[in-house]
Design brief:
Blueprint (H helix, E strand, L loop, with lengths): L13 E15 H4 L4 E2 L2 E2 L2 E3 L6 E4 L10 E9 L13 H15 L12 E2 L9 E2 L1 E7 L1 H4 L2 E2 L5 E5 L10 E5 L9 E4 L2 E8 L4 E7 L4 E5 L19 H7 L2 H10 L1 E21 L13 E2 L2 E2 L12 E9 L5 E13 L5 E8 L1
Antiparallel strand pairs: 1-17, 2-3, 4-5, 5-6, 6-9, 7-8, 9-16, 10-17, 11-12, 11-17, 13-14, 14-15, 15-16, 17-22, 18-19, 20-21
Length: 346
């Protein structure tokens, strides 16, 4: 318990701040299609027995050094023209669409009817996206959220053998903190646009870290490639192939994905004030020599001097809660006053 202390006034001596830190996250196509192993059986890509999604890592996933980047899956609404009981994994594809829609958009007026994804900010039943690719980004990369206006994704639109002979780039350039987004149960989302060709590629949910891309996002300015994946059209892939094959097709055509993540740091700042007539003496036993203050050099007329090295924050019960160390001792005597700023981040 301190012998001398100064009470902190919560009205004048305490302030709270919020700082947003951003980090650029570039995910190039070489990471997700062919960096380790032979495409599509890359060692950094993991498929599961349930077959509902595919996970992509930045390194062979069996390695302890591997970091999870994102998960890939596809889905369509049961009212889609792609839906059909004879389709491969038809029920799972419908379930994936419904699950993402339920979590990110919620229900319509009917408790059993989920909203359909739309390529605008209206949620009015128009411009629906019924056949979609889902990119579920890792929290390791997105942190607290994706920064609005920072997303860019480039997709290959040419034939399977040379997918990047033609490309299309979608961005959320129209999204800011004040405009160009819509708030839903899954957080804010913005529209991904190819402004040069006036095309909509999908939407991105910033807090959830999920990108929902319409199947027509691969059309570019010249329509969907007929050889979308290994001789198959996009419709063939989504209806006649497993979800893992559709994820392979997506990876094969992903040239670049980039965004800025956001880390929110909340801080409480305590202003610790030492007035001119306080804290001029030290409680350290070595401060005295034979009951005389050492720093006065045996001259009683010399003013007392102390050096502040540490600040302790106590609660109302005089229990020590936090300790702050100064980078160097600060001289304190009756001729000066000090205000020391202590910041706690959380």
């Amino acid at each position: 318990m301190p012998i001398n202390y100064e009470v902190i006034n919560p009205n004048t001596d305490v302030a709270t701040t919020k700082t947003l830190l951003h980090e650029v996250i570039p995910l190039t196509g070489t990471i997700v299609s062919g960096t380790y192993g032979t495409f599509p059986d890359d060692d950094n890509v993991k498929n599961y027995s349930h077959g509902m999604f595919q996970s992509v890592y930045d390194y062979p996933y069996l390695s302890s050094s591997a970091n999870h980047i994102f998960d890939l899956t596809i889905g369509y609404d049961e009212s889609s023209g792609f839906s059909g009981s004879a389709n491969t994994q038809n029920a799972k594809k419908i379930n994936m669409y419904n699950q993402f829609s339920q979590v990110l958009l919620g229900y319509t007026g009917s408790a059993n009817t989920v909203r359909l994804f739309e390529s605008d900010l209206e949620l009015d039943g128009a411009n629906q996206m019924k056949e979609t690719f889902f990119v579920n980004l890792s929290r390791l990369l997105t942190k607290d959220e994706i920064k609005k206006g920072s997303v860019s994704i480039t997709l290959g639109t040419a034939s399977y053998g040379s997918p990047f002979g033609g490309t299309v780039t979608y961005t959320d350039a129209n999204a800011t903190n004040n405009a160009g987004t819509l708030n839903t149960v899954g957080g804010d989302y913005g529209v991904l646009l190819d402004t040069s060709n006036n095309l909509t590629g999908g939407i991105v949910f910033y807090q959830a870290g999920v990108m929902v891309l319409t199947a027509s996002a691969f059309s570019g300015a010249f329509g969907l490639p007929t050889d979308f994946y290994d001789g198959l059209t996009l419709a063939d892939v989504m209806t006649g192939s497993a979800i893992s094959a559709s994820a392979d097709a997506f990876r094969h055509r992903l040239q670049n994905l980039q965004f800025n993540n956001t880390t929110e740091i909340n801080s409480t700042v305590y202003f610790c004030r030492a007035s001119h007539n306080k804290f001029n003496y030290s409680n350290n036993p070595t401060y005295l020599s034979s009951s005389a203050i050492r720093v006065k050099n045996q001259n009683r007329d010399n003013p007392p001097v102390s050096y502040i090295t540490t600040i302790g924050l106590y609660n109302s019960q005089n229990e020590l809660l936090a300790v702050a160390k100064l980078s160097e001792p600060l001289r304190k005597d009756p001729t000066n006053e000090l205000t020391l700023r202590v910041r706690l981040d959380y």
